[in-house]
Amino acid sequence: MSTNGTEMVKDAIYQACLNLDEQKWDDWLGQCDDGFEYSVTAYSPEIGKKMKYLGLDHKELKDYFDLLPKHNTDHSPLRRHATVYSVKVGDDGKTAEAVTSFLITQEMFDGVNAPLDTGENHLFVVGKYHDKLNIENGQAVFTERETRIHTRRLDKGSHWVF
Amino acid sequence: MPARNREQWEKTPDLKRGEWVDSRIYSDEEIFEEELQKIWKKAWIPLMHESELPEPFDFRTAIIAREPVIVVRGPDNEIRAFLNVCPHRGMAVDRRPAGSFLTGEPSGNAKHMTCMFHGWQFDMKGNCVEIPREQAGYQGRVTKQGQGLRRLRCETKFGGIVWVCLDDKVDCDVEGWAAGSLDCIRKSLDEEPLEIFHYHKAIIDCNYKLWHDTNSEFYHDYMHYHNRITGFDDGYFARKCAAFDNGHVNVGTFTVNYGEYEVADDRGELTFPHLPPNNWYMVDMFPGVNVNLRGSAVRMDLMTPLSANKVMIEFRGLGLKSDSDEVREKRIQHHNTIWGPFGRNLHEDLVGIAGQGVTMMPNSDPRRILHGRHEGLYIHDEVGMRHFYETWGKWMDRLPSDPSKKYEEGVVAGPEMPPARGIKSFPGKVAAE
Ligand code: FES
Ligand SMILES: [Fe+2]
């Protein structure tokens, strides 16, 4: 457990990656403030626009996660490789902003042709997390995450957030 | 029935011939190549929305049947399409997905399309305006006057959709091509300018027609949890399919009960002009286009067939150009809930066709794919696919249920096929080469 704000932010971001990799959705939501806002955005040079692919608040995310078991889905696990590039802690030490670069790989399972593909990993999505956090009680809590992706060829897409 | 041996498995089903197709139409490379020539090079294809090139000198590139296409907005605001092929030595005139010719490129001048290779330049009407050292090299044998780009037929129609046809001789305009299939949403699309807000794409290892089939049939709503749980009511089963000339179909409206979806709110206030609140129309246009107006947003899918077993699908979302930021945000949210890359339905639909692609790889054994549900043209009736393959059979001169045989009038759809309005008039619409 860190005492330094920057380290607390890094710990939170990396822990979030582990939770998301392991689909511990509730644990990830537990790292987020009640007023948490989540979005996935992308800039499209094809249409010259910044786009929003997903935008959910804390409650909507909870509903979204609760429904996941009811959907048919590609179950190929997604895993992040992330590096926190920058952390800026506010002057009062109570808020922070961070930018984290990530790659998400997909371990093929049942998405296409299992007997052939199973066990293959490929690059699925490239992007950056733009996070806002509160630092309170010795830990960093997410208040906002904008997941800016650079991938617009998403093929089958995903029921799992990035 | 117990599991079948090979002979039983291959037996002709107890359905009429138009009620199934042979899977080779989804997997055979020779048939695929023929489709590019006989269908994709002769159809009007809605390549993009005009808001993707909002300013003069903006351009966008695309592909139809392997032919590269460039669409340009001229200084006169007219949108024109050309083959994206330099008449000199065949370089793509521009390599970008989109951009502007307002500023010059390293090899050429502002307000011109410049082929970077040897610097030939073209204006926004496709005239060749510069051949470096023309006289020194060609001595009048090749001149700018004779080296314009290949202009393609292009119309901006139905809410600003940009349609392009590779064939100069096709005997209909976009109005005739649509054959009334878009009339149900025409007033909504045309009341005020639309603007694109969403774009993403998928490349899936399956035949393009499998995506079109999925868009055309609603029986697969069983796959979608929400549709199954909240959607299967009287209003849903009251929706009807209608067939139009040229292989198009649409599915009529019903009231979508969004209140029962957890991650959505009422869409009534954002409904498109002239559309009763929460109404929904789905238009499936031959050979691989889907226009879907659902309350507050338009979705448009364009398929670009890449091989017998590979298709690119581009997904677009459109709102009204006059939208405030707040309204636009709402439309985007509505769009994404179902149709976004994280939406409830789109992922499942794509997983579905990827699975079909696995069972119908090139040279796999032929099988029967059933299209035989009859439910009085109501929503789970598979008339949409039957109508599509009736048209496909005519254009290809092949029988969808046995593509090694020639098309026979009436055999494809079977006598219970509802009369497709005016379909018999169609073959005359494509002039012979
Ligand atoms: S190929 Fe275009 S200028 Fe030579
Ligand atoms: Fe679907």
Q: Can you give a write-up of this model?
A:
The complex is a heterodimer of chains A (162) and B (433). Chain A is globular, with a radius of gyration of 16 Å. Chain A contains four helices and six strands. By secondary structure, chain A is of the alpha+beta class. Chain A has a six-stranded mixed beta sheet. Chain A has one domain: Nuclear Transport Factor 2, Chain: A (Roll). The mean pLDDT of chain A is 96. Helices cover 23% and strands 46% of the residues of chain A. Chain B is of the alpha+beta class and 433 residues long. Chain B folds into two domains: 45-155, Rieske [2Fe-2S] iron-sulphur domain (Rieske Iron-sulfur Protein), CATH 2.102.10.10; 182-396, Naphthalene 1,2-dioxygenase Alpha Subunit, Chain A, domain 1 (Alpha-Beta Complex), CATH 3.90.380.10. Chain B has eleven helices and 19 strands. Chain B has helices at residues 6-10, 29-40, 134-138, 174-178, 183-190, 208-216, 225-231, 234-237, 325-339, 346-359, 383-396, and strands at residues 20-22, 45-49, 58-64, 67-73, 79-83, 98-100, 113-114, 121-122, 128-130, 151-157, 161-165, 194-204, 241-243, 249-251, 280-285, 289-294, 297-307, 310-320, 368-370. Chain B has a seven-stranded antiparallel beta sheet with strand order 2-11-10-5-4-3-6, with no helix packed on it. In chain B, strands 12-18-17-16-15-14-13 form a seven-stranded antiparallel beta sheet, with helices on both faces. Chain B has a three-stranded antiparallel beta sheet with strand order 7-8-9, with no helix packed on it. Chain B is globular and about 80 Å long. The model of chain B is unreliable at 258-265 and 414-433 (pLDDT under 50). At the A-B interface, strand 1, strand 2 and helix 3 of A face strand 12, helix 9 and helix 10 of B. FE2/S2 (inorganic) cluster binds next to loops of chain B. Fe (ii) ion (FE2) binds at residues 220, 224, 345, 349 of chain B.
